[in-house]
Amino acid sequence: MEGRSRVIQRVDFAVFLTVLLFFASVVPSAFAIDKPLASFLSDHCTSCHDDDTQKGGVNLAHLAADWDDPDEVRIWSRVHDRVVRREMPPKSETQPQRTVIDAFSTHLADLLLQADRAKARASLRRLNRIEYENTVCDLFGIRAALKGNFPEDQSAFGFDTVGDVLTISPEHMEVYLLAADRAIQQMLGPDKRPPQIDVTKPLSNDSFASRAIDRTLMRTKEGGLVAFQDYNCPLTIGDGQAKATGTYRIRIKAKPFQTDDALMMAVYAGDVIRKTGVRLVDYFDIPADDQWTTIEFEDYLEVGHTIRMAPYGLVAPTQGPNRFKGPGLMIGEVSVRGPLEDWPPTSRTSLLAEVTSKSPGIEDARKIFERLMPRAFRRKIDPGEIEAPLKLTNAALDSGRSFEDAVGVGIKMILCSPGFLLREERPVEVEGRDVVYVDDEALASRLSYFLWSSMPDDELLSLGATGTLHEPGVLRQQVERMLKDPRADRFVQNFTGQWLNLRDIFFTEPDATLFPEFDEMLRHSMVEETHYYFQEILESDLSLVEFVDSDWTILNERLAAHYGLKGIRGAKFQHVRLPPASGRGGVLAQASVLKVTANGTATSPVVRGVWVLNNILGQPTPPPPPNIPVIEPDIRGASTIREQVKKHRSIESCAGCHDRIDPPGLALETFDPIGGLRKSYRSIGVGEPVNLRIKNKRVQYRIGQPVDSSGVMPDGRRFKNIIDFKKILTDDKASLATCLTEKLLIYGLGRNIRFSDRGAIQEIVAKVAEKNYGFRSLIHEVIQSETFRKR
């Protein structure tokens, strides 16, 4: 019987296996594509996009209908878009009838929409490190440098606000504890008034500067010191080192020496004596005057930090400082006073405002937490949430710690809790609407982190609590109020820093042989131009088309000289009307963008072309196929970049994408890696020598091959130069508006654009088109949209 049982089991298993294999051969995979999709791909796509061909690096032969796989959905979305735009099948192939294309695209769109709407929406997102620092500082009314202690935040779709990549690691938790301690210490302040400094003296009498005279090219004059070059300039007031962290008022008297021309002075702050953690404060104008000019500003210094001054743009002396007849900068009296903050600090008195008894206890702590926690958590709190920090505070009191220290223990728990670190977006259903919205408290946070990169203020929190914020009139009034607030500068800095990649300005250092004119002030001015330009378009509600082309920009003397524009003087930025044929209008021709899209040595039409497609036109390109060589520009001067690109395009799997990538990249070849206008490439080998001196040194580069910035767009339109190319872009205002709308939504919502968002984006673009594509109007329409309110 036992043996028979084994035989029956073997037979049963064999039958089961046979049946299973049979059904596997006839039952379609759970992810098999349906007949309408399969037929269209087979008839019009897979002959060029199969295992063997893979044109454009795309293989559609094994594409599945796994609507939960973001990579599969991304490919299907690209297929949909290329077919709808009639880019595929290519014009060289037999074209399907219009009805066939419409049927395929409509069916695929329905499937993508259904899959998108079925997905769960994330309701929690971690504050990134910039948002964390701003939130802590705004919560307590303090200044504290916290973000530098955290690991770099990951980015997705171009922004570090995307929730899917804002994970919390053990390293984060360790830093949260340390950052909370530092913030609480800053908020409570010292037990007694911190040591003050109030130093006013000629720099020649300073303990540090006077010792440096014999070791540098400086001259002592009655009432001050004269410096002739900025390199290692020791114009540092050592007696002005901060004795306590805080805000200091600084006054500097300066004037030109041995010159009738105005000068510029750079001021640095930090540990300038040991040359660590040094940062630029700003550049200041010193007028051409024999009288002293007084520069006054306030800056935040940590213990032991002070300031250093240096002339800008002066050449090194060719003789000893006492015989040198060239121009110099004379620094006279310097004053450093601070810290300026009240003591006890306002942050401490505000926290303890309701504590009136001489011996405060746990009930006083309860009052503090009842007021603090709704602001820290950006919502109404449940009654039980206050008990955990109260329990820790009570234990600290029982152990003999002071009331302030004990409350600090409870606050530390609040700052390290999910309610503070995570943005929770609670849902609310509206009767009669098949849409789930975020409640008004979550909307207040969504709005404040969008425009301020920080928590809502009391007015926003109040409107969120009463449930009136979502009303169109209220929402519009709040957006206007917020855009006029100084905190809106964070939107300018953070959005442009990521949309235009300005954060990468330090990523490469231009080759000193090829670009000897590059310096720190030029780099600083590059970014400032873009920030001022963006701010002007936003404040004046100018057309977003001006991001691509305009007849104006905002420059200082250094950047104007770099652009070859005359008549602009001084370190301050000013509105400048551009010459008609300059080609400089818009961000595409700004040195900041041109630098971050180059490698410091040479330019690549591929890199710049991909940047334009992704950041300006909203047409991201897929990564190159494997084993495709990178284009390496020949800085020896034997060949042009256009010749290199032509070789690349000869690879069949590359040609399709390069039809779209190369034209914008070639148009930008008229600008070098630091944003200078050029007619020829610079070479370190072949070419004509250059009779030019920069910074008192003869340049080493040569004039290489001529630049050709002409091209042909995929639709056959031709351009001769950057001016023609920008005209092509501005002819399609709707595409520019669509791309910028998508970028704003990704940044503001913390997620990628979904297929189901497309209808709302089209509505936003249509509305802003009626308002001359005004950028401020676009911000309003984005925030008023249903997409911005949806969970």
What does this molecule look like?
With 791 residues, the chain is of the alpha+beta class. Among the domains are: 1-30; 33-118, no CATH class; 197-338, Galactose-binding domain-like (Jelly Rolls); 510-730, no CATH class; 736-789, no CATH class. It is 41% helix and 14% strand. Strands 2, 3, 4, 6, 9 and 11 form a 6-stranded antiparallel sheet that branches. It has a 4-stranded antiparallel sheet with strand order 5-10-7-8, with no helix packed on it. A 3-stranded antiparallel sheet has the order 17-21-18, with no helix packed on it. Helix 9 (362-377) runs antiparallel to helix 10 (387-398). Mean pLDDT is 87; it is low at 1-30.
Give structural attributes.
27 helices; 23 strands; alpha+beta; six-stranded antiparallel beta sheet; four-stranded antiparallel beta sheet; Jelly Rolls
